[in-house]
Amino acid sequence: MNKVAVFVFADTETSEDLGRVVNAMIAVKEFKQAGDEVRLYFDGTGTRWPGVLSGKDHKANPLYESVKDRVSGACLFCATVFGAKESAGQCGVGLVDEFEQHVSVRKLVSDGFHVMNF
């Protein structure tokens, strides 16, 4: 079984950003369907995505809904800095504070996770 942590750093501003978050979620869906242990994190300006993707009218909402159970959280520091703290909480995405208000990448690697960044 694979262990994979997928990070979304892409902002919400451009079609390139949308492509990156969609590709991240497709990767999560593929690992999920294969029965692998997969986690999805939102980091940097990517912490804005849960609030956007939770909108029922967003074209990527069905994909987000299919992987929402694999969302492990959003970086507390980044969600605060990039104004996404409230929207993350409103859509049920927890804020992660493992190492200086960030996700601990070292812990993930120590636990055997491969890390993918989008």
Structural description of this entry:
A 5-stranded parallel beta sheet has the order 4-3-2-1-5. Helix 1 runs parallel beside helix 3. The model has no long low-confidence stretch (mean pLDDT 98). Strand 1, helix 1 (15-33) and strand 2 form a beta-alpha-beta unit. By secondary structure, it is of the alpha/beta class. Helices cover 42% and strands 19% of the residues. The protein has a single domain (3-117), classed as DsrEFH-like (Hypothetical Protein Ychn, Chain: A, 3-Layer(aba) Sandwich), CATH 3.40.1260.10. It starts with a strand and ends with a strand.
Any descriptors?
single chain, alpha/beta, five-stranded parallel beta sheet
Uncertain runs are none
The CATH class designation is: Alpha Beta
Strand order of the largest sheet: 4-3-2-1-5
The CATH architecture term is 3-Layer(aba) Sandwich
- What assembly state would you assign to the polypeptide chains in this entry? single chain
Number of domains: 1
The secondary-structure element order is: EHEHHEHHEHE
Helix content, binned percent: 40-55%
How many β-strand stretches? 5
The CATH superfamily is identified as DsrEFH-like
Distance between the termini: 22 Å
Pairing-aware structural class of the strands and helices?
alpha/beta
CATH fold description = Hypothetical Protein Ychn, Chain: A
Strand content: 15-25%
- How much is the average pLDDT? 98
Count of DSSP H/I helices: 6
Structural Rg: 13 Å
Shape assignment = globular
- Sheet of most strands: 5 strands, parallel
